[in-house]
Amino acid sequence: MPCLNLSTNVSLDGIDTSSILSEATKSVAKIIGKPEAYVMIVLKGSVPMSFGGTEQPTAYGELVSIGGLNPDVNKKLSAAIATILETKLSVPKSRFFLKFYDTKASYQNTSHCP
Predict the structure, then answer these.
(1) Among 2, 48, 57, 92, which one carries the catalytic annotation?
(2) Nearest CA-CA partner of 57 in 87, 24, 97, 96
């Protein structure tokens, strides 16, 4: 199950978070090649954070997936999520960082979000 955990210092008050969750789900599923039914998105707003020494709008994400990740996929995912954050939350693409975790399936390793 791919899980995208997004945190931003932007307030989500008055923001249509459903559209962000929906677009992120569709993008992750399509780019990784997994069914939308297995994709989880976690979105946290108003998280105290700075990037480059300023508290201007910024975001950090972690994407965990059992397989499906590689440098080309990661680049496409970064671009797609950055576009969503820029259009929906006014977070510039240059102020977004996404970390990838490609885990291996096992009975002891669950694919839940951290």
Answers:
(1) 2
(2) 96
